[in-house]
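Reviewers of the previous submission asked for a worked example of the structure-prediction workflow described in the proposal, so we include one complete record here. The input consisted solely of the amino acid sequence. No template or homolog information was supplied to the procedure at any stage.
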Amino acid sequence: MKTILVDAINAFIIKGEGILKEMHILLEKYPNRKIILTGANDGEME
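From that input alone, the workflow returned the following C-alpha cells.
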C-alpha cells in the first residue's frame, strides 16, 4: 500500500489557526497511511 506524505507547515497546519479542516477531510477519504512531515525544530513544532 502507498503512503501519503503531507507537508505540515502551510499545508496541513496553518500558523495561528491550527489544522486545515479541508485538508484533514480530504486525507481521511483515503485508506492509505499518512505521514505528516515538517522541517521545524523542537521549538518551532509547538
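Helices lie at 21-28, 42-45. We consider this example representative of the routine output the project will generate in years two and three.
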